[in-house]
Amino acid sequence: MAQAATNEIKPGMKIELDNDPYIVVSNDFVKPGKGQSFNRIRLKNLKSGRVVEKTYKSGDKLDLANVEETQMRLLYTETEDAVFMNDETFDQIHVPLQRIEPVVSWLKEDTLYDVIFYNGEVIDVMPPTFMELKITQTEPGARGDTASGRVLKPAILESGAKVQVPIFVNEEEVIKVDTRTGEYVSRV
Amino acid sequence: MKKKSLKWIHVPVNTSVVYNLKVLKDRSLMLKKVRSFFDSKNILEVDCKALQPSPSIDAYIDLIEAPVNKTNIHYLHSSPEYAMKKLLSYGFEDIYQLGHVFRDGEKGKKHAFEFTMIEWYRKNISFDSFIEECIALIHLFIPNLPYEIITYKNLFLKHLKINPHQISLKQLQKICEEKNLLFPTDLTKDDYLNLLLTHLIEPSLPQNTITIICNYPSTQSALAKLKKVDNDLIAERFEIYIGSMELGNGYHELTDSREQKKRFDEQNNIREKLHKKIYEIDNSFLKALDNIFDSYFGIAIGFDRLMMLRHQIDDISKISFN
Question: Is B72 helix (H, G, I), strand (E, B) or coil?
């Protein structure tokens, strides 16, 4: 298995620990006074999302996880699965919605997603950072609301995501949203 | 089209370039202020060579090697300590050096392979007076910070309710387990104490306060004299912190060459166990110690870290001329 020493570990790298894949969140070099130096490495479990902090002696080696990222297009969703296709190989895969629960409300057909495989199995799906989505449901914004300081209202997007939008946007309009935070960016 | 609300307009402002210039100019100013500080106290500036034929011996400080004449290995100094002590043995009394030092393998937000150190030695001074001098130097960078002195033992008693001089390796392992600390398993007692210090104690040291930790365990004595306090053998070594940032390491300087040789051998033994290069002992340094007859306090303080705190910048690479 490929390995990397503590001084080569950078945020974003994927490592394997106790048979689970982790992504490196941060790597801090600590060296107390005249003592041994250590690396405090924060790791996020790619399966559970849980973050742990582990301390290594500087120079220790960590196992790199066999994690691959592939861009795939969402063909359609079924009751329990989402079906993605690789545009180059035309390979299709069924991913249980339950496994990618945080991203379900950002699924839109014919959109390219980053699909993350660990030892050949899908463990995560990442939506594009910005998506253009139609508002399917929101209350009409009443004039005068800005005066009371109320500038945002809830809206539901075609993918199912619930976001806050400015009062001047209406149903059926397409808006640009930051999928990392669910924040409204602009009208399209 | 409706006018967009201001709330949604992002104006990117890049002030970092302007700010860096300000910080770097201040760096020059502070180098000058440090020199004036020592001048005003009649402490003589020395500039011992950075390139040394003999290595300093620390289990956990790796030197950057510099081949000279293609075959001879010289070393970039990790501190001017040995060379300065040789000067003390020739009859120099109060001296300081402000300059660059080098350490291999040290890279992080608070560490760099090359950094600037303020190191000085004071003859026949009391611990209290020496600490006051250290505080006065820090106040050049951050005025009016209050300070506290606490022993290593009381620090551990206060934060973790353990006596670091008495506790066993097993008990330390148990504490780490209880606190869910995922540490390597093959650690020495001093490694555990160091990790508890960095992981649990340092983050809760009082902010905006200078903390001086003194009376280190004898096993972490480095180049400090030993003494007995309440039946514990301790090292007259102290570390200075501001908040959780470690700034400097000082000693009541060991001048016993036999004891010093013994410690060098111990450090080399640790190096051997860690599969690191064994460093040759510099006999001229040991001889120099035999010719120092007065009591000296000395300390090395990180200039760059003081600058980081002065400008509230959390990355050492951002306050240096690169």
Answer: strand
- Of A28, A52, A166, which is closest to B182 when you measure between CB atoms? A52
Which of A33, A55, A185 has its CB closest to that of B184? Answer: A55
| Min Cα–Cα distance to chain B from A96, Å | 33
Residue B2: closest C-alpha in chain A = A168
From A60, which residue of chain B is nearest by alpha-carbon distance?
B184
CA angle in degrees (0–180, nearest 5) for A156-A157-A159: 125
- DSSP annotation of B205: S
Establish if A119 touches chain B: CB-CB under 8 angstroms: no
Q: pTM to 2 decimals?
A: 0.80
Q: What is the pLDDT along chain B (322 residues), one digit of tens a residue?
A: 444 444 554 545 555 555 688 899 999 999 999 999 999 999 999 999 999 999 999 999 999 999 999 889 999 999 999 999 999 999 999 999 999 999 999 999 999 999 999 999 999 999 999 999 999 999 999 999 999 999 999 999 999 999 999 999 999 999 999 988 988 888 999 999 999 999 999 999 999 999 999 999 999 998 999 999 989 999 999 999 999 999 999 999 999 999 999 999 999 999 999 999 999 999 999 999 999 999 999 999 999 999 999 999 999 988 988 7
What token pair was written down for B150?
């606490």
Signed CA dihedral, A92, A96, A102, A106: sign only:
positive
Whole-complex ipTM: 0.83
- Asked if A60's CB is within 8 angstroms of B184's CB, the reply is yes
Minimal CA separation from A13 to chain B, in Å: 17
**What is d(CA B20, CA B234) in angstroms, rounded to the nearest whole number?**
43
